[in-house]
Amino acid sequence: MSDKIVNDVERFKRIVEGRLRKDLKKHISRGVLEGMRGKTKITVPVSDLDLPHFKYGSGHGGVASGDVEEGQVIGEEKGDEDGKGEASDKPGEHSIEVEVSLDTFIDLVLEELELPRIEDKGKKNIVEETHRYTGIATAGPESLRHNKRTFKRALKRQISMGNYDPKKPIIIPVKEDKRYRARKTFIEPVANAVVIYMMDVSGSMGDEQKEIVRTEAFLIDAWLKRNYNGIDARYITHDAEAREVDADTFFFTRESGGTMISSAYALCADMIQRDYPVADWNIYPFHFSDGDNWGPDDTNRSINILNFEILPAVNMFGYGQVVSDYGSGQFIKDLREKAEDEKLVLSEILNKDGILGSIQDFFKRE
Known about the structure:
Helix content: 25-40%
CATH class of the largest domain: Alpha Beta
Number of domains: 3
CATH topology of the largest domain: Rossmann fold
């Protein structure tokens, strides 16, 4: 019986995954990943999915007290007589909320993208030693004495020698009883890739544009983590000035102001030069904006920083431009004209439905 239940559960999971795969773009466009960082499960609506029910039929005992009709689904309600709503000749949308692991959902997205594996460099062979006190030794400093192990050893010795009196339970450890915490050395790989996310948070970037950026950054992060054993993530937001922020601020901030793209590029270039030697690190900066910038002078400065400081150091630089009713959209045109490098990948994101296509733009060549 238990094997049958397990098989049914696995079959149900496969059915759910099939429905999720079918409606991936719809789920992403609904913003199901918004705010999901740090969580392990996600709830999504799945349509056209019939759950199994028990039914009361003839030849069986009753199902608790109350009136019930033959063939009625147990737990089924006959409807709300006081329900409100306008009449319509259109069928309703029937769906249920299904909870799946976030890893499962991400795997389905990455499978849908059909992205190739990317090549590592340099840092994959570098390891570092870390030390943790997980062992036990018979000698060591008193500051590391393991009292529980010491008294347990002393108790065993006194019982075996007949010196232990349960009425007067006095335990006196001697030198041979003492046990100490011992340090063990572990060899661990060092993070070998860094992804630097830059987002325009100026006034022309609305909530929808920021949600597109955050969802795409979330999926890019998941993709890179599938390719590297360890990965660093750094976050930069900018309006008229740039600042490094933590992940929570990046994914939830609501700011406004003018736009100077060069401030973000200068901070990114300084970060790479200071913290990530080119020979050892796989470096992936991404910048998302609506293409609005403070005049041609700052655009020229931005492109100079990009051409001479950032692009020579990175594996790839991805620029994603989201469509905004308030942004000029000019910056991607300037990049096409003045920044020519195979490491520079440009992507225009018209709406939420364009998120998956934009990620393919960035990584299909890798």
